[in-house]
Design a protein that fits this description.
The mean pLDDT is 96. The protein is an alpha/beta fold and 327 residues long. It is built from ten helices and nine strands. The chain is 38% helix and 13% strand. The structure holds {5-[(3-aminopropyl)amino]pentyl}boronic acid and zinc ion.
Amino acid sequence: MTNDASPSPLQQTRTAVYRSPLFAAHDNPSHPENQRRIAAIDRRLFSEPNQSDWPELPFGDAPLSILETVHNAWYVERLDRLATGGGAMLDHDTYITPQSYEAALKAAGAAVTAVDNSMSGFAPRGFALVRPPGHHATPEKGMGFCLFNNIAAAAVSALNQGLERVAIVDWDVHHGNGTQDVFYDDNRVLFCSVHQYPFYPGTGGRDECGSGKGEGYTINVPLLAGQGNAQYVQVFDQLFMPALTAFEPELILISAGYDAHVADPLGGMRLTEEGFAAMTARLTDLADSTAAGRIVAVLEGGYDPSALARSVESTLHALDGVIPGGV
Ligand code: OKP
Ligand code: ZN
């Protein structure tokens, strides 16, 4: 028996990444959601002299038709107007600069293209390394640092192309209230969120589980502060993975926020890079068994730039299948 089996077709290409200079152009240096987050990722993973391990693929703006499915048309227009008018605050901590509309269009475009490339088989695994984040943006308003809901746009693109079962797993330390709202009564999208609770934005109790046809297709796991890798893996192994396995998703999307990291200044959790790899490995395995390997991560929060960069790296390795899922 030989040990040099060639890699499976699914493991032959590295995870594709989606990046743009615009993701650093939306910036407020005195805000935790600033361009230094992207700069740290760039420096660690995409700088000379080390050639990047991950192929970078091109993409454009998200189509307005998709954004106007996720959001009200007047909200999309309002964001354009506020940015063009020189910037504004959308809420107490959500800034808009003159570059923000362009950046937000491109961020949603990265997520949409990552999904399109995943579905076509061109790049089954992808990571959209975007800013601004998206999971708090509801159909009618941006909030919590989020302008457009990038991952919801990506899911809508997949549904528009005929997929009947899309899973969204949100491990950002904050509840993904916007994503939940978009698909709350939709049984084609299984939304699983684990988050610190009670905490911003205040939603995401266990009793929020979908409505109408969507009842049972939203799963919230609120956790008290202080939980680490072992508790998160337990949530996956006991709650998310059984539900996801039964759902048989044709595509898995990850709202990949890194503010549950122990070093994060906003979150109160204790995850490390290994925890993110363990969660990713479980989802990647499931994608290989039910979704033809189709799995796309979209960056959400994570406010310690160096912990963020290390955690993104460990997620990429796990998506590539080079990190086993044990913690
Ligand atoms: C964005 B993402 C109370 C504090 C508000 C907003 C946090 C937004 C996090 N005013 N904090 O989920 O990482
Ligand atoms: Zn967050």
